[in-house]
Write a structure and sequence with these properties.
The chain has one helix at about 30-45. By secondary structure, the chain is mainly alpha-helical. The protein has a domain at about 10-45: 2-Layer Sandwich (Erythroid Transcription Factor GATA-1, Chain A), CATH 3.30.50.10. Zinc ion binds near residues 29 and 32.
């Protein structure tokens, strides 16, 4: 029996497509990991978040 490759071990860096480096998996470098993190945060949170109020549209019908 041959050892099958681990499922997630060959995924390229999602930022630049290079092979991932161990400490930064699944990224190739801390830079790419950081870029992705900022992208991720930018989509969800604001860097300077001024909490105006949690307007919950609670349309409980
Ligand atoms: Zn990269």
């Amino acid at each position: 029996m041959t050892m099958p490759p681990p499922a997630n071990s060959n995924k390229p860096c999602p930022i630049c497509g290079k092979p991932p480096a161990d400490p930064y998996r699944p990224f190739c470098s801390s830079r790419c990991a950081d870029l992705d993190l900022h992208r991720w945060l930018g989509g969800v949170y604001r860097v300077e978040t001024s909490e105006v109020g949690d307007e919950k549209d609670d349309s409980g019908v």
